[in-house]
Structure formats: structure tokens, C-alpha cells
Amino acid sequence: MAEPPGGVGDPAKVNWLGPGELSSLTTRELQQNLRLEKRRERPAQLLFEIPSSRIVHQSLGKHVVHDVVVMRSGSFDSRRVSVDRRYSDFRQLHHKLQEEFQEELEEVQLPPKLLSGNFRPDSMSERRLALQDYLSQLYAMCCIRHSPLFAEFFTTQEQRKAHVLLRAGQFKAALELLQAVLDVQEKLLPWQKPTLLVPTLSALVVCYRDLDQPEEAICIANRALPIVRRYGLRAYRAALLELMVDLGYQLGRPVAQLQEELTVLRDSERGEVMQRSLKEVVIRNFI
């Protein structure tokens, strides 16, 4: 009889073990198998936490900023990803969602604006819990968690800041922001289209290329290109291919297939869009 696949610690083997074999496993091995089996069956979920808030002082006044942490359950999530959001950001999200999902949101209430006492520690603590619960209620609704509006709440501000830095030639600072955006988007990805990643991946490619890190640039480009092909993102496809051909020559890698794909694409779809560089495509997204 063929040896069954898997080994001790592999959840696939649990189904192959007979009573005699099970008795030979140690308690630790049985517990490990059980944990792996449970982890495999547990669907990933998004969790939201607002562990802290801070008061930001500006020349014309002050406001409270909340640290919104996004986590994935159902599997070990070692990356702590957070974004700073004001109450006005939550209010703007709610208004946008109401325009599209008015009936679905009838039972979901945004915590009301505080008219006084905003900066008291007890008020800030209550507000954190209320906003945390609000995000959880939104996520519990299928139509909301699959909506691009929900994803944009966690990423758009940072994307805009990164693109300002990119246009200013501050590629290292832009890179850090874009990587944080990508971390959030990857947590949201099970409920969003993969196209969500393309603008961020493309901006990362531009930053790595202009920081003279071609290996990193082509690695990220290889992540973006299959999504661009699959979903027919024409402007990105031509620009990505052109940059990958240039990087391929620089790194001494074969580029014939990429070059042929680019030539066929440009011959079939002429126009200004086909002639833009990847940096131009990236920048135009956030002008």
C-alpha cells in the first residue's frame, strides 16, 4: 500500500491514521494536529481595534485622532497594521455608504458627534469603543465589506500622501507609506477584487526603480502583471510591460516574450494611453 501523504504535524495525515497509529502519537503531537485541523477549517475574518487616541494640536485648534488597527483572524497574523482616522473620516465614510446602501444601513448608526467634552479621557475612551463597534457592524454586512468604499476608508489618505511624496521625488518616504497601504489591502483582499492592489503595487515598482533597486522593482511588477492581464487594465499593462522590459535588460534577464506582448498590445490599441510611462499612470490616479 502506498504511503499516505503528510507527516506528523500535517493535518492531512490525521484522516489516514488508524486506532493503533493514533495511540503511538504523543499528547503534544495530537494537540498539534488538532490545532492545525482547526486552523485549516476556521475562515479568516477581519477584526478592528482602536486601542488608543491622541489629541493633535494645530494653529487653528485641536482634534482627536484614533489609532485604528486592522487584524485578520483565523490564521496567525503577525503584522500589526494601523491607520490614523478622525471622527470626521468616519462620518464621511458613513455618508458615502448611505448613498449606496441606504436600506442596508438602517440599523447601523454612526456614533453621534460630541458637542462638548471631546478631549476628556473618559469621552475619548467611550468614543474609541463606539467607533470600533461601528466598524465591526459594517464589516458584518456582506455588501459593505465587499464595497470599495469600505477598503478606501483604510487606504486612500495614505495613498494620497505617498503620491505627493512620489511626485516630489521622495521615493524612500513614499515607499514606507505604500508598503503600509499594501499591508492593509492584503488583509482586505479576501473581500475585495485583486485590482485593489494594482495602483499600490505599480507605485511601489516606480519607487524601487527610481531608488535603483531593480530586483525589488521587477519582483513587485511580477505580482502586478497577472492581475493587470486578467482584469484588462490596459493603461497599466502597457506601462508595466515597458518598464519590465527595461528592467530585464538591466538585469540581464530574457525579455523576448514581454517585448512581444508589448508590441502586440501597442499595435492593437494605439493612442495616448498606450504611450504613458508607469510613473505617469501612477501619478494620474491621484491628481
From TrEMBL:
Location in or out of the cell: Early endosome membrane
InterPro entries: PX_dom (IPR001683), PX_dom_sf (IPR036871), SNX20/SNX21 (IPR039937), TPR-like_helical_dom_sf (IPR011990)
Protein name (record): Sorting nexin 20
GO MF: phosphatidylinositol binding
Alphabetical list of Pfam families matching this protein: PX (PF00787)
Topology term for the membrane: Peripheral membrane protein
Main localization of the protein described in the UniProt heading: membrane
A single cellular component GO annotation: early endosome membrane
Gene3D superfamilies reported in the protein's UniProt record: Phox-like domain, Tetratricopeptide repeat domain
Domain annotation PX: ranges: 44-161
Transport among keywords: yes
Keywords assigned by UniProt, alphabetized: Endosome, Lipid-binding, Membrane, Protein transport, Transport
GO biological process: protein transport
